[in-house]
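Lay summary. Proteins are chains of building blocks that fold into shapes, and those shapes determine what they do. In this project we predict the shape from the chain. Here is one chain we studied, written as its sequence of building blocks.
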Amino acid sequence: MRVLRTLAPLALVAGLATACGNGSGSSSDSQSGDSTILGASSGFEVRTVYARYAPGVPFGPQLPQALVNEMSSQSCPMQPRIVQDLLMECDTGKTVYLLKNPLVRGAVASATPLQIGHKNIWYVEVKLDPDVAQEVTDATKSLTGEQLAFSYDGAVLTSLVVDSSFHPSHFAITGDYDQASATKLAQELTA
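And here is the predicted shape, written in a compact code that computers can read:
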């Protein structure tokens, strides 16, 4: 479990690094036709997290009650949808996220399923092209302390908080993966 917690930040970096493209950070335009927030892309995206909810984990005091009610009543998995101008998506661990517009969109250069130790616990090592990694670096320079979500095809793969050690050229996506599911995710990310 300790290894998974150590690898989780790497996974977020990977998600961010793999996403290339442009997107605005504003979430106020989604109802007026801003397609960058409406629905998930068929590729990889890095988005700023507005809020997240996991069963049994309390919300912070800043979140409006209407959003608390909406997120806590959501069952995962789900189809991504717009809630109060934010994109709502789940991860495989039943955490519900409210996400702002994509910071970076794009493709992954390589993704390799790897085993942790001698147990049936797997993760996906992701490497980004230097240009994509630079775009992620530029997009996150002023985001220290902000939480980012890395999503693919309508689901959050992982999330992390940006700190001074954040390096987007490579990362690991951790979760409840066995060999088959890690291999499938690696193939999807590089397809």
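What the prediction tells us: The longest helix spans residues 2-18.
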